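INFO batch 0412 | record 1 of 1 | parsing
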Amino acid sequence: MISKRKNILIGLFLTFTLFIIVSVSTSIKPLITSEPPDFYSTSKEVSLEEMMNVASNYDISIYLPTFLPNDLKLTAIYLKESPFIAILVYSSVGNKDYKSAELTLEIAPVDPKWIPTFTELQSEAEKSQDKTALQINSWSVLIQENAYAYGKYTMLINIWIEEVNYLYNAPTLTVQDAIGMLESTQVVSVA
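INFO prediction complete | emitting tokens
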């Protein structure tokens, strides 16, 4: 009889303890999130000229498209100076938010050993229906349709020029629009 009571009390205690653990663990926010840190908190909004000056300090030449489809215009540039990372925001409606604009471009130098060859990109593209490897103006390009970024599906375009990675996030563009935009890419100089 005492043994049976003891087992019931132990069972109740364990059930209560488990209930508390589950309640607490489901109310705690996860420590790891799948989104990158907020770039706004580590960058500042700058002009094209300011970004070009900082890039020049790092001996980085900036290449930008001269053709932008869908009436897109440059609306904002967010710059982190050290290490150099710039996000350019393009919109037809004045949107300055890099997470929701029609087109964004992240520019960041990359160690040459991490730049894939065109053959490596072709191999990667052959393994996926959503990836296409191209050479445009002798630059290696990887287009990934149906990529997931900032909580939505989008087209991501990587292009490597002179040890700099240009990553376009283009949720509203077609592949043909993107190719036309990339073909128009030229080095920019500030007058």
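INFO post-check: The longest strand covers residues 139-149.
INFO record closed
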